[in-house]
């Protein structure tokens, strides 16, 4: 029986746990999937996929009572491969190659070839997903007795603001990585998680960050804590690192087939826009001075946004002509 004859999108409504009646009947070690297409035995830790139609004497009928309507419960992900349905539990990003890339499962669980073509979006971490600079400023103030405010950072190059060499600035940042200021002090940008959860319905989301390989493990942990299951891949550029090679963001984005980059740095914005990638230049609450310098905003592929609601609006307009 093919998917053409029984379209998945026409019958699927959501998930439901196995009902009490099935558990009472002795199906404790097995469960089953009913999509109005076919049935398949799965483990009892999985969810039961139910359609908006129910079977009565071998005939499908629409379910009207509230208790039988399909709904979503429990944080499980389903992976659809061609006409086969398999359920599993997402356990976090896994390293898939040696160039700093990590991969998640599809955030909604559906394989892309069963869905309309999704917009491929790359998302930066620092100052876009989390407030890195606020935590770093606190560390510099406490460790080096040097107080700086966000308004001083006319450029996102720390040595120019701290009046030290580039090497010294890199050493200080790597000291910061070893402290609780970094490990516990970076808070999510307001509105980001909610917007990304909504956007994941029609966007393939991946992280593209300039962060160093030295903080890869903690970054993965932080993303999984604050943005669980939302990103398919996580790539590290390893910029400003004490060792190892770096990769340009434009190269990473092109390898992903990214159509849009969300980033706060005008230099990266211009670099990616010049190779044909649309960029949403993120200037949260109009409070990032470094976003206001350079020629990036005059590029036709760069659009300034000031919060995640504006990101949502821009991506919806791109995805839905």
UniProtKB/TrEMBL annotation:
Give the molecular function GO annotations.
5'-nucleotidase activity
List the SUPFAM superfamilies.
Answer: HAD-like
- List, alphabetically, the InterPro entries matched: 5'(3')-deoxyribonucleotidase, 5_3-deoxyribonucleotidase-like, HAD-like_sf, HAD_sf
Q: In which domain of life is the source organism classified?
A: Eukaryota
Q: Name one GO biological process term.
A: deoxyribonucleotide catabolic process
Q: Which residues are catalytic?
A: 124, 126
Kindly list any coiled-coil regions of this protein: none
Concerning Gene3D superfamilies, the annotation shows: HAD superfamily/HAD-like
Please report the name of this protein according to its UniProt entry: Uncharacterized protein LOC120103732 isoform X1
The organism of origin for this protein = Phoenix dactylifera
- Provide the organism lineage as a comma list: Eukaryota, Viridiplantae, Streptophyta, Embryophyta, Tracheophyta
């Amino acid at each position: 029986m093919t998917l053409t004859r029984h379209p998945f999108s026409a019958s699927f409504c959501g998930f439901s746990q196995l009902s009490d009646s099935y558990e009472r009947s002795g199906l404790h070690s097995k469960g089953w999937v009913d999509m109005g297409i076919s049935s398949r035995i799965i483990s009892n830790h999985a969810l039961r996929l139910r359609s908006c139609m129910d079977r009565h004497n071998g005939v499908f009928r629409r379910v009207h009572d509230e208790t039988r309507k399909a709904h979503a419960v429990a944080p499980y992900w389903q992976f659809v491969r061609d006409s086969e349905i398999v359920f599993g539990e997402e356990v976090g990003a896994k390293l898939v190659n040696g160039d700093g890339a990590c991969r998640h499962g599809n955030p909604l669980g559906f394989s892309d070839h069963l869905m309309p073509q999704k917009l491929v979006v790359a998302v930066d971490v620092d100052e876009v997903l989390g407030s890195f600079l606020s935590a770093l400023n606190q560390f510099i103030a406490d460790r080096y007795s040097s107080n700086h405010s966000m308004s001083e950072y006319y450029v996102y190059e720390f040595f120019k603001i701290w009046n030290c060499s580039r090497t010294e600035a890199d050493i200080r940042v790597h000291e910061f990585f070893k402290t609780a200021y970094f490990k516990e002090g970076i808070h999510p940008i307001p509105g980001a998680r909610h917007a990304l959860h909504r956007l994941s319905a029609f966007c393939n989301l991946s992280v593209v960050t300039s962060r160093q390989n030295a903080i890869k493990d903690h970054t993965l942990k932080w993303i999984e804590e604050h943005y669980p299951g939302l990103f398919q891949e996580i790539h590290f550029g390893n910029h400003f690192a004490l060792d190892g090679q770096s990769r340009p963001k434009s190269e990473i984005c092109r390898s992903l087939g990214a159509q849009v980059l969300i980033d706060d740095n005008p230099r990266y914005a211009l670099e990616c826009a010049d190779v044909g990638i649309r960029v949403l230049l993120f200037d949260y609450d109009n409070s990032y001075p470094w976003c206001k310098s350079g020629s990036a905003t005059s590029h036709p592929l760069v659009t300034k946004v000031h919060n995640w609601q504006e990101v949502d609006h821009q991506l919806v307009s791109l995805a839905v002509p």
